[in-house]
Amino acid sequence: MNYDVIIIGSGIAGLSSAITLAQAGRKIAIVTKKLISSGSTNHAQGGIVGVLSQIDSVEEHVKDTMIAGSFHNNENAVTFMSKNSRKAVEWLLECGVPFANNDGKLELTREGGHSKRRIAYVGDYTGKAIEQTLVKKCKREKNISIFENTFALELLINNSRCTGVQVVFSKADKSDELFSNAVIIATGGAGQVYSRTTNPKVSTGDGIAMACRAGAKISDMEFIQFHPTAFTKNGKTKFLLSEALRGEGAYLRNKKGERFMTKYDERMELAPRDVVARAIYEEEKNGPVYLDMSHLDAKEVHTRFPTLTARLSKYDLDLARDLIEVSPAAHYLCGGIKVDLNGESSISNLFVFGESACTGVHGANRLASNSLLEA
Ligand code: SIN
Fold first, then answer.
1. Which one of the listed residues 273, 304, 311, 366 is annotated catalytic?
2. What is the C-alpha to C-alpha distance for residues 196 and 360, in angstroms, rounded to an integer?
3. DSSP string, 7-66
4. 10 Å Cβ neighbour count for 268?
5. DSSP class of 285
6. Using a 6 Å cutoff on CB, does residue 45 contact ligand 1?
């Protein structure tokens, strides 16, 4: 089977590439190891950065991104991403993503490390809304073939060029080869390496491992981001509690009921993730840590965060009234397969987008909601 481009992975990075290339007349195959929406995008809650407000600027977004990333970032890549953020959000709007808005004007929320409100969102299920919209669009494109339950085993390399992928189709007892002019790896991160993670079961790092075996350069793999607030019960991570909760006013409290962030950072609950995660880890040495929204209007909290309200109610917890136990969990891989500003790796015709890529935008620690934007 021959294609112009084979895309491995079906989150926002894979699907947006597929749609753009198919619309340019290319014949595309999407290979995905489970169902099309099994990946991390579907789980993203907070939103996507867009430098959209009149009181915001590319310079301020770049600065916030570099501060969060401990200045280990590639500034050119950060600037490129930031300058294109408006275009990216507008493209998603054109695709039909129903971002929250007030009479057509986008509503913007805030998360840790951001000096401005600049995050476009859909309730507390932004990733799901994006994934569903893009899947629908892909399924309508006649130039796109989708292979679900198909595992990519190895990259085919000929004369130092990537020429396709060896795959195992669903229920097959042997491997097959798919050929193409270019391959895109968009397989996401590797959170399942950790016992505590917010990532879905498919986030095992296999795309990065495959590129590594083929000889591609890999970079910054030591920078694993821990999200500060995963809902925790009996010492086990249950699910992510979006940073947007703190963006909209949630407090963190320790066992004694103190707002302990006063001791760690003047930005309090909205310090970058690494700072908040380390503070929680310290406090947990003396007992559990909680997220508290009881000082906010309950109806507004329930309306703004419907999915989290419903999921917590299954544990007999009210997001707007109860203390919710939280703990850090592995969330995002800042490094990955090294690529340039076109997403091209050190192997010709092998491109990498999204969490499996290391473009340098995240540095040592990703700023919240830059991930969907980068992808
Ligand atoms: C969140 O909603 O807290 C996660 C968003 C992100 O990882 O940027």
1. 273
2. 25
3. EE--SHHHHHHHHHHHHTT--EEEE-SS-TT-SGGGG--S-EE---STT--HHHHHHHHH
4. 17
5. G
6. yes
Dist CA 137 CA 249 (whole Å): 36
Q: Is the CB of 271 under 6 A from ligand 1?
A: no
What sign does the CA torsion over 121, 72, 208, 25 have?
positive
> What number does the ligand 1 atom closest to the CA of 124 have?
2
* φ/ψ bin of 234: left (φ > 0), alpha (ψ from -120 to 50), beta (otherwise): left
Q: Is the pLDDT of residue 23 over 90?
A: yes
**Which atom from ligand 1 is nearest to the alpha carbon of 331?**
7
- Report the alpha-carbon distance of residue 68 to residue 184 in Å, rounded: 28
239 touches 325 (CB < 8 A): no
- Average pLDDT estimate for 302-320: 98
CA Rg, the chain, in Å?
Answer: 20
CA angle at residue 83 from 77 to 86, to 5 degrees? 130
DSSP 294: T
117 is catalytic: no
Residue among 83, 81, 78, 77 nearest 58 (CA) = 83
Any ligand 1 atom below 6 A from CB of 373:
no
How many whole angstroms separate alpha carbon 87 and alpha carbon 83?
A: 8
**Single-letter amino acid, residue 273:** R
Helix (H, G, I), strand (E, B) or coil at 77: helix
What is the chain's mean pLDDT, rounded? 97
Token pair for residue 266? Answer: 């003047």
Residue 117 has a CB neighbour count (10 Å cut-off) of 15
Which helix (DSSP H) or strand (DSSP E) does residue 323 occupy? strand 323-333
pLDDT value at residue 171: 86
CA dist., res. 52 & res. 68, Å (int): 20
pTM: 0.97
Q: What is the Å distance from ligand 1's center to 332 Cα?
A: 9
pLDDT for 255 equals: 97
Query: Strand pairing partners for 164?
Result: 156, 179
* Of the candidates 290, 273, 253, 232, the residue with the CA atom closest to the CA atom of residue 367: 273
**Is 368 touching ligand 1 by the criterion CB < 6 Å?**
yes
